[in-house]
C-alpha cells in the first residue's frame, strides 16, 4: 500500500512519464475533439452531497453484491485493450491484484492474454464482447470464455464503428506487437466475411448472448432512459452507463449527468453500473449516491498498471481508503445508506440575482 499523500492523483502524470508517448496517447485519447473525454472527470466533481449526521459510522462497509456475488468493493475493472503494452504482465497483473482485492475484472475481447490464464489467477471475471455482423463467428470466443470461468458477458453497444481519433504522436498500432492483442480469436478471424462489427445490434442480441453463453448479460455503453428500459425488457441483468470514456461519439453527455435518469428508468429491474472519469473515492461516492450499483475503472486502472500488479493493488487499497473516508464523512455505513446523498446542484440558486445588480 502506498502512503504517499495524493498518490492516486499522481498516477496519470507518472504514467505519462513512464510510458512510450504513443502508448500514453492511446490511453488518454478521446474521439475527435475530446470534448466528452475532457468533461468526464469534472462532471463527477460537480455532483454535490448532503451528508447525514448523528449516525454511528464506527464501522463502514463499501461492499456490494453484483450479479448475485458479493464484492467487498463497489468498483470493478473496465475492459481495456492493450494492457500488455502498459505493462509486460498486462491482464495477468490486473487480474492478480483485482482477485486479491475481491473485485470483478471485465476482460476485453481484444485482450492480449489467453482467457485460461486469466481464469487461473482466481479473479472473478466477465467477458466483454463486441458482436460481429455474422453472430456465429462470436460463438468460439464465447465458448472459450465460459470454459475459462467467465461469469457474465458484457455486450459493448456503443461501437458500431471505432470512432476517429487524432493521435498527436502517430498511431500506437504502428509500433505495437500485434501479438499483444486479440489472442483469444481464432487465427484468421479478421479476414473472414462477417467479422466486421455489427451495425444492426438490437435487443434480440441480449437474448442470443444469454442463450449461447448461459450467462447473465450486461449491456455497456448506454446513456439514455429509453435504451435502458429496452435492455431490461429484453432480459439484461445489468445496464452500464458509459460513453466509452469519450472514445466513441464525441460531445456525448457525461455519464455523471446521465446516471440518475437511467437509475430511475430501470427502477430496480436490473443492476446499473457506470464508468467514465472516475478517479477518486469522492467520485465513487457520487456515483453510488446517484444510484449506481458499481463503478468501473478504465484509465485509472491502466495508469496503475504501469506499476504492475503492485500498482493495481495499491490502486484498490487507496480507493478503498478514500471511499471509506467519504462514506464516514457522509454519515453512511453502507452503500445502501448513500442513495439519497448526491444531487446535481440547481443551476440557479434561489439567492442569486436574476439580473446583474
Ligand atoms: C485504452 C482504452 C481501451 C479501451 N478498450 C475497450 C475495449 O476493448 N472494450 C470496451 O468495451 N471498452 C473499452 N474501453 C472503454 C472502457 O471500458 C471504459 O468505458 C472507459 O475507459 C471509462 O472511462 P475512464 O477511462 O475515464 O474510466 C477502453 C478505454 C480505454 C481508455
How would you explain this protein's 3D organization?
The protein is α/β, with parallel strands linked by helices and 357 residues long. It has one domain (11-343): Aldolase class I (TIM Barrel, Alpha-Beta Barrel). The chain is 36% helix and 13% strand. It is built from 13 helices and twelve strands. The protein has an eight-stranded parallel sheet with strand order 4-11-10-9-8-7-6-5. Strands 1-12 form a two-stranded antiparallel ribbon. A hairpin with a 2-residue loop joins strand 2 (64-66) and strand 3. Helix 5 (90-101) packs parallel to helix 13, helix 9 packs across helix 10 and helix 11 packs across helix 13. The chain is globular and about 65 Å long. The relative contact order is 0.20. Flavin mononucleotide (FMN) is lined by residues 26-27, 40, 78-81, 108, 110, 128, 156, 220, 242, 244-245, 247, 275-278, 297-300.
Topology, please?
Elements: H1 11-18, H2 21-28, H3 35-45, E1 48-49, E2 64-66, E3 69-71, E4 75-77, H4 83-86, H5 90-101, E5 104-107, H6 115-120, E6 124-129, H7 139-147, E7 153-156, H8 204-213, E8 217-222, H9 225-233, E9 238-241, H10 255-266, E10 271-275, H11 281-289, E11 294-297, H12 299-305, H13 308-329, E12 342-343
Parallel strand pairs: 4-11, 5-6, 6-7, 7-8, 8-9, 9-10, 10-11
Antiparallel strand pairs: 1-12, 2-3
Helix pairs in contact: 5-13, 9-10, 11-13, 12-13
Residues 26-27, 40, 78-81, 108, 110, 128, 156, 220, 242, 244-245, 247, 275-278, 297-300 line the site of flavin mononucleotide.
Amino acid at each position: 500500500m502506498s502512503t504517499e499523500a495524493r498518490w492516486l492523483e499522481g498516477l496519470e502524470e507518472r504514467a505519462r512519464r513512464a510510458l512510450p508517448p504513443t502508448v500514453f496517447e492511446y490511453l488518454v485519447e478521446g474521439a475527435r475533439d475530446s470534448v466528452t473525454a475532457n468533461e468526464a472527470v469534472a462532471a463527477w466533481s460537480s455532483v454535490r452531497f448532503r451528508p447525514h449526521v448523528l449516525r454511528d459510522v464506527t464501522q463502514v462497509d463499501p461492499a456490494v453484491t453484483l450479479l448475485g456475488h458479493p464484492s467487498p468493493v463497489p468498483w470493478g475493472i473496465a475492459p481495456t485493450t492493450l494492457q500488455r503494452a502498459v505493462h509486460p504482465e498486462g491482464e495477468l497483473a490486473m487480474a492478480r491484484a483485482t482477485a486479491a482485492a475481491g473485485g470483478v475484472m471485465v476482460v476485453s475481447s481484444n485482450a492480449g492474454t489467453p482467457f485460461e490464464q486469466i481464469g487461473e489467477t482466481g479473479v472473478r471475471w466477465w467477458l466483454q464482447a463486441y458482436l460481429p455482423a455474422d453472430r456465429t463467428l462470436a460463438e468460439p470466443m464465447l465458448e472459450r470464455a465460459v470454459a475459462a470461468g467467465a461469469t457474465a458477458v458484457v455486450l459493448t453497444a456503443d461501437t458500431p464503428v471505432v470512432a476517429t481519433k487524432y493521435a498527436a504522436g502517430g498511431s500506437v498500432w504502428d509500433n505495437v506487437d500485434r501479438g499483444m492483442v486479440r489472442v483469444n480469436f481464432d487465427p484468421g478471424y479478421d479476414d473472414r466475411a462477417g467479422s466486421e462489427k455489427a451495425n444492426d445490434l438490437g435487443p434480440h442480441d441480449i437474448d442470443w448472448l444469454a442463450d449461447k453463453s448461459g450467462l447473465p448479460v450486461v449491456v455497456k455503453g448506454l446513456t439514455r432512459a429509453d435504451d435502458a428500459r429496452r435492455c431490461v425488457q429484453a432480459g439484461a441483468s445489468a445496464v452500464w452507463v458509459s460513453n466509452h470514456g469519450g472514445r466513441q461519439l464525441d460531445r456525448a453527455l457525461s455519464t455523471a449527468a446521465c446516471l440518475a435518469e437511467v437509475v430511475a428508468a430501470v427502477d430496480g429491474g436490473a443492476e446499473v453500473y457506470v464508468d467514465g472519469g472516475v478517479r477518486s473515492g469522492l467520485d465513487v461516492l457520487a456515483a453510488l449516491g446517484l444510484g449506481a450499483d458499481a463503478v468501473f475503472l478504465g484509465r485509472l486502472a491502466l495508469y496503475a498498471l504501469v506499476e504492475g500488479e503492485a500498482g493495481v493493488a495499491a490502486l484498490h487499497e487507496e480507493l478503498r481508503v478514500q471511499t471509506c473516508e467519504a462514506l464516514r464523512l457522509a454519515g453512511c455505513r453502507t452503500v445502501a445508506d448513500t442513495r439519497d446523498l448526491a444531487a446535481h446542484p440547481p443551476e440557479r440558486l434561489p439567492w442569486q440575482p436574476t439580473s446583474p445588480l
